[in-house]
Amino acid sequence: MKVSVLGAGTWGTALTILLSNNGHEVTLWSKLEREVEALKKDRFHVPNLPEAVLPENVHVTADLKEALLSPELVVFAVASPYVRATAKEAAPFVKKGQIIVNVGKGIEEATLDTLTDILKEEIKDADVAVMSGPSHAEEVSRGIPTTCVVGAETKATASIIQDAFMSETFRVYTSPDIIGIELGGSLKNVIALAAGIADGLGFGDNTKAALMTRGIAEISRLGIKMGGKLETFAGLSGVGDLFVTCMSKHSRNRNAGYYIGTGMTMQEAMDEVKQVVEGVYSAKAALKLARKYDVQMPIVEQINLVLFENKSAKAAVTDLLLRDKTMENNSLEW
What we know:
Oligomer: single chain
Low-confidence stretches: none
């Protein structure tokens, strides 16, 4: 296939390597001229993917019109704060019925739109899908076995994307639950901040396990209210992605949380990570969604207080532990 990957960050670069190794003709686009020139010259992404070499047959460009000339598949690997602007810019060059798979994770704070919502709104008549799961770019780029799930409007579209990405090291499942996949991938970043904060405070495995377990409960409650399926939140884009993002040394959200737990401000932590920390951008949106759908999300509430209202991380953990007594699952009967 002819495939265009929009976004030459770590994830876009890793997927470009995967797709090229699968035999596809890949064009990698970046808006940043300096990034394009560096990738053309060095063929690897410094400093975040130093071991991952970009194949010589990958075409790298800063010309969006050129990147969208005639691809069979467009991979949208743009960081969430820039998805709408990039989609607006790309729209005039996208053909009707174009398959676009979003691989970014986030919720737009101002509108509460998911990234696929934004793509559908800005690029009319495109066939928009999503791919998510426990998949750090640092490992995918090196061929470490990984699994993801693709959500699409039709089984046919999901199968096309599945076939494009599948390899002996990258297994892809399919699902009709686009909203569930999107929410799992976006909201787990907020919980990962909490897990990192717990690490930064010097707490142990018990604390992190509690945050992860109660975190997926919060994500599931909201997701089901918004039309997602429980099975999705128990799957790769829910529990799977939450686990890897809360536990991994590669997780920018967990690492940013860690720095906050040690006493840094939100901005200092983001500067230290040196990459887009999606959970910071999704935290306010998650809280707004919780209020809109009348869903209790105490971890999300406390993270917002820590990030944006200068509440101490330790006080936030204490307040979570001292909440009113309740059942673990209100749907169970004695």
